[in-house]
Write a structure and sequence with these properties.
7-stranded mixed beta sheet, globular, Nucleoside Triphosphate Pyrophosphohydrolase
Length: about 180
């Protein structure tokens, strides 16, 4: 099976090429990524625990889903695709913000991503793909925040970096709806 490709980008999100996913992570090449945050109708965050056989950050809790857009695929299409594939959920998504991060991970890999962050609301419980997701839970922001403070090693790096910023955006959206 051919290794999936990722879209290499510059700091302004202009495509500079493509590379194999593992190659990009071994070399720490900046590439485009997507992170999706979904809450339920009660305002609880839908989290996933990454499968134990993932190539990095396995078994850690994180946002609803993540992915890399395929060459030629838009970020919103990638976000919707991966939400369906990993969590069995379909909902409208809003583009919140982008950010760049670089972090050394396990297995001699480096995440260096320009991450597009999306947000959605669902009435449905996830129907997880157990090849990708070990477990899921719905949790209030306050409980999540307390757990990250007390147990930071249980969460992915990128999730800990942005969850507070995501919450600020969610609160703004919810205040604009009222």
């Amino acid at each position: 099976m051919k290794e999936p490709s990722v879209i290499l980008v510059d700091k302004d999100d202009r495509q500079t090429g493509v590379a194999g996913k593992i190659e990009a992570h071994h070399k720490g090449l900046l590439h485009r990524a997507v992170s999706v945050f979904v809450i339920n109708a009660r305002g609880e965050w839908i989290l996933q625990r990454r499968a134990f056989d993932k190539y990095h950050s396995n078994g850690l809790w994180t946002n609803t889903c993540c992915t890399h857009p395929f060459p030629g695929e838009t970020t919103i299409d990638a976000a919707k695709r991966r939400l369906r594939e990993e969590m069995g959920v379909e909902c409208n998504l809003v583009d919140l913000f982008t950010f760049i991060y670089r972090e050394k991970l396990d297995n001699e890999l480096t995440e260096h991503e320009l991450d597009h962050v999306f947000f959605g609301v669902t009435e449905d419980d996830p129907k997880i793909n157990t090849a990708e997701v070990e477990d899921w839970e719905a949790v209030s922001f306050n409980d999540l925040h307390d757990n990250i403070i007390n147990n930071p090693a249980n969460y992915t790096y990128w999730f800990k970096e942005i969850y507070k910023n995501v919450n600020l955006h969610i609160m703004k959206i919810q205040n604009n709806i009222k």
